From TrEMBL:
Dynamin-type G domain residues: 40-340
GO annotation, biological process: endocytosis; intracellular distribution of mitochondria; mitochondrial fission; peroxisome fission
Highest taxon of the lineage: Eukaryota
Domain (GED) ranges: 641-729
GO MF term set: GTP binding; GTPase activity; microtubule binding
Keywords, in A-Z order: GTP-binding, Nucleotide-binding
Gene Ontology CC: one annotated term: mitochondrion
UniProt-recorded name of the protein: Uncharacterized protein
Stored Pfam families: Dynamin_M (PF01031), Dynamin_N (PF00350)
Length: 729
């Protein structure tokens, strides 16, 4: 009251006007988000559920002012969203608009979605009665592709996740949105089968199990709550009763004396619900036939609940007007509480859509964008090849990973060198005492590149046979150079096999690396496949060039003369000769010492000791004797054979090292890994040389990618607008 004792009703009017405005903004924002059809998030909503005979349609008619059609031959097979909005429109100009919101099953089908979105019927509210509502339900069902028992259609689906939206805007409406789902039934009929019963239950569960749904559970006051399936479903979906508000209908039909049962439920003493219970009086059959007004119906309801024992109930929980007011306030509060999490979910969709669009790259709608797209990919590829060949991977990967190209090639180089040392020669060389040299053998390292080669024969026998079978006009002990060349070629004949296997292994590594790198850089499979197809032929030419170079190297090594300026050659040759002389000299001396020892022993038994004392040493005789033994050490029937062996033994490792190094540097590093190799084909200047038609062939998006881009862009646009709507509340 003011100072004069008058009520400040204008203050309450302003508060109510402000509250209505805030409620309108919240409901409009949620409706806008719902119309944007972002199926990945659930929205705050109020859903009316109940049995078919519970009076739900009559209750909704009283709440919304719409006359619901009633008939045993009409079974609603989709949800109906009723939207009430208070506007400045007068009752005479108030309209009812019917549209369809495509569900998750239709939103991804472009033709179906457009067909449903084109569904629109507008009526004057004064002319929208049960018949018009019935016709709209039938037409909406046909648009959704649902069977219609009234028209006896036999094809189509039984139920739809699309939603029929009925919107009423006028000055006499509050701000409220209610979703009505088909009612549960228990006894199948001609129009409602056992299959329908299961499908309706599933449809209701889809709504009630949504954590953002407020469940308005409607029960018939005449029937025990334990026998009403809708409350069993509500308990499962909302066991603590936090999202459920109960409504007891048909209170006027309860038999006198039985009022305590529904009244105890209404007092929240039987089935506790956080939002409590309401009791309402339904329109009677006579009132429906007489078409009494909403004001008259409200008057009849007020009069009924003023009677005993109903008058003892909380007046704030009695009647449709109180229920309608409560529902509007409850839904508004629910929207406000869910808004922060809702905005987070929408923002997550925006981020996800943006990232996925980023992986697709910019839409390539013209040649300039197509060329830029490929050029950037080629530049990235070129840089990565250089980095990876330098061992700069930037992450820990297994040694065998395809991207570890440098590591894998280095390992192959080492195995190749070991294989060449172990299996490159046809026969092992000999030591001075005639044993096979074993320093080249490392068979474990040659399991891949050196497997399957023939075991060698004795090299001295082989050289002797070749030497004696190829003597020409040269004097005895002189060596025919052609024999040495031929023997070297035969001794090194395994080089080709081992080397070709090595190059094939490197080529395999190069191909695997190229494939892995293209996969990492070009995320769009179609473009990657087209680029791979184009460069495969050029890669084959590049690899063939490497094999051609290898063939030239082999020809140079085996087709010409034996030559080297390596000092190790003469050092090794001289060492072999010195060692051979030393070995034979020592052998002769040992034999002489043994012989002399034996002779001395035998003479000591015959010669008097006095004669030994008178013996003397003759230096000249000793020197002549040593020279004679040294000359014998040089003398051999196999001097030429041994010389050839020592020449080959000195030259072979030098040629081997040179050949291995040349193969690795020229064939592998220059031809396979170098600037003109198969890893350098996809580069920016290659893109520059492409014709326009070639460019378009490579970069054009296939239908799947184009559709995905369109879907992601649409998803992003809708989520962006949804976030704007959420932030407007």
């Amino acid at each position: 009251m003011d100072a004069q004792g008058h009520k400040n009703t204008h203050k309450f009017d302003k508060i109510e006007i402000y509250a209505e405005g805030e409620r309108s903004k919240a409901f409009d924002a949620v409706d806008k988000i719902r119309e944007l059809q972002i199926g990945e998030i659930s929205l705050p909503q109020l859903v009316a559920v109940g049995d078919q005979s519970c009076g739900k349609s009559s209750l909704l008619e009283s709440i919304t002012g719409i006359s619901f059609p009633v008939g045993s031959d009409l079974c609603t097979r989709f949800a109906t969203q009723i939207v009430l909005r208070r506007t400045d429109a007068t009752d005479a100009s108030a309209v009812v608009q019917a549209t369809i919101l495509p569900g998750p099953g239709s939103i991804s089908k472009d033709a179906t979605r457009k067909k449903l979105e084109s569904f629109r019927h507008v009526f004057k509210e004064s002319e929208f009665g049960p018949k018009e509502f019935r016709d709209i339900i039938i037409k909406a069902g046909k648009a959704m592709g649902i069977e219609n028992e009234v028209d006896e259609m036999v094809s189509g689906k039984r139920f739809s996740d699309d939603i029929l939206k009925i919107e009423l805007s006028a000055s006499h409406h509050p701000h409220l949105t209610i979703v009505d789902v088909p009612g549960l039934f228990h006894n199948p009929t001609k129009h409602q089968t056992e299959e329908d019963k299961v499908l309706i239950r599933k449809l209701i569960e889809n709504y009630t199990e949504d954590k953002r749904t407020i469940i308005m559970a409607v029960m018939n006051g005449q029937i025990n709550i334990a026998n009403q399936e809708v409350f069993q479903m509500a308990r499962i979906a909302d066991p603590e009763g936090r999202r459920t508000v109960g409504v007891i209908t048909k209170c006027d039909t309860v038999q006198p004396g039985d009022e305590n049962v529904p009244m105890n439920i209404a007092a929240n003493k039987v089935e506790y619900l956080r939002h409590g219970w309401f009791v309402v009086r339904n329109r009677s059959t006579q009132e429906s036939n007489q078409r009494i007004t909403a004001d008259e119906l409200r008057k009849h309801e007020d009069e009924f609940f003023k009677k005993d024992p109903w008058c003892t109930l909380d007046p704030q929980r009695v009647g449709v007007p109180k229920l309608k007011e409560f529902l509007g306030r409850l839904l508004h509060e629910h929207i406000q509480s869910e808004l922060p999490r809702l905005a987070e979910e929408i923002n997550a969709i925006i981020i996800d859509s943006t990232e996925k669009l980023g992986t697709l790259g910019e839409a390539r709608t013209d040649l300039s964008k197509q060329r830029l797209y490929l050029t950037l990919l080629a530049k990235d590829y070129e840089n990565k090849v250089t980095e990876y060949l330098n061992g700069q991977i930037g992450q820990i990967l297994p040694e065998s990973h395809p991207l570890k190209v440098r590591t894998r090639v280095q390992v192959l180089h080492e195995k190749y060198a070991e294989a060449m040392k172990a299996k490159g020669h046809s026969r092992p060389f000999k030591t001075m005492d005639g044993r096979d040299e074993g320093k080249y053998y490392n068979l474990e390292a040659t399991e891949q590149v050196g497997e399957g080669l023939s075991e060698p024969r004795d090299i001295i026998e082989w050289i002797s046979k070749a030497y004696h079978g190829s003597r020409g006009s040269e004097l005895r002990t002189l060596i025919n150079n052609d024999v040495v060349v031929c023997l070297f070629r035969d001794q090194a004949k395994n080089w080709r096999t081992v080397t070709e296997r090595h190059i094939k292994s490197v080529v395999d590594v190069v191909k695997e690396f190229n494939s892995a790198l293209l996969t990492r850089i070009i995320t769009e499979e179609t473009v990657r496949r087209r680029i791979t197809m184009r460069i495969t032929k050029e890669m084959a030419h590049s690899i063939a060039a490497a094999y051609d170079l290898l063939e030239n190297l082999i020809e140079d090594e085996f087709g010409g003369i034996l030559q080297t300026v390596d000092d190790d050659y003469m050092a090794a040759l001289n060492n072999s000769k010195a060692a051979r002389i030393q070995f034979r000299l020592m052998g002769n001396l040992v034999k002489e010492m043994v012989s002399q020892k034996i002779g001395k022993v035998s003479k000591s038994e015959e010669t008097p000791k006095a004669d030994v004392k008178h013996s003397s040493f003759d230096p000249a005789a000793a020197l002549a004797d040593w020279l004679g033994k040294a000359t014998d050490a040089f003398a051999s029937n196999n001097v030429a054979v041994e010389d050839i062996h020592d020449i080959l033994k000195a030259y072979y490792p030098i040629a081997l090292r040179r050949f291995i190094a040349t193969v690795n540097s020229q064939v592998v590093e220059r031809k396979l890994l170098g600037k003109d190799g198969p890893l350098r084909l996809f580069r920016p200047d290659y893109i520059t040389m492409l014709e326009d038609w070639e460019l378009n062939t490579i970069t054009r998006e296939d239908t799947q990618i184009a559709n995905l881009r369109q879907e992601l862009q649409s998803r992003l646009d809708r989520a962006t607008r949804a976030l704007e709507a959420a932030n407007s509340i």
